[in-house]
Amino acid sequence: MSIIIPSSPADHKTIKDAMTEISNSMVRIEGEKAFIKEAIEELNDKVDIDKKYLNKLARVYHKQTLAQATAEMEDLEALYESCLK
User: Fold this and answer.
1) Are residues 60 and 33 in the same domain?
2) What is d(CA 33, CA 31) in angstroms, rounded to the nearest whole number?
3) Do 55 and 69 touch, CB atoms closer than 8 A?
4) How many domains are contained in the chain?
5) Do 58 and 75 share a domain, yes or no?
6) For an engineered disulfide with 11, which of 6, 16, 48, 50 has Cβ 3.0 to 4.6 Å away?
7) In a domain? residue 81
8) CA 85, CA 83: separation in Å to the nearest integer?
9) Residues 6+ apart with CB under 8 A from 36
10) Cα separation of 25 and 31, whole Å?
């Protein structure tokens, strides 16, 4: 497979503009990830709950998947009880 390199200046500009916007988006994502990490660390310091649980709580809250997470944990518990005890 080979890459067909565009020769049109308009295509070059389109590609460059898209890469600039994508890069800008990646910078925003990195900033948001840093904010989330700092917020979790600060919350951990204030309430003394393990960061692992705070991160899980944040994901479940964001996705609104508590019922699904609870059902999965119940399934895992049943499987463990059945097979490993």
Assistant:
1) no
2) 5
3) no
4) 2
5) yes
6) 6
7) yes
8) 6
9) 58
10) 10
Q: Is residue 2 part of a domain?
A: no
32 and 55 inside one domain: no
Angle formed at CA 71 by CA 68 and CA 74, multiple of 5 degrees: 150
Q: Are residues 27 and 53 both part of a single domain?
A: no
Amino acid at 24: N
Place of tokens 């019922």: 67
Tens-digit pLDDT profile for residues 28-43: 999 999 999 999 999 9
pLDDT band per the 50, 70, 90 thresholds, residue 14:
very high
For residue 2, which amino acid is it?
S
**Residue in the structure block whose two tokens are 């609104």:** 64
Please give the pLDDT value at position 1: 79
Cβ(43)–Cβ(49) under 8 Å?
Answer: yes
Three-state secondary structure string covering 25-73? HHHHHHHHHHHHHHHHHHHHHHHCCCHHHHHHHHHHHHHCCHHHHHHHH
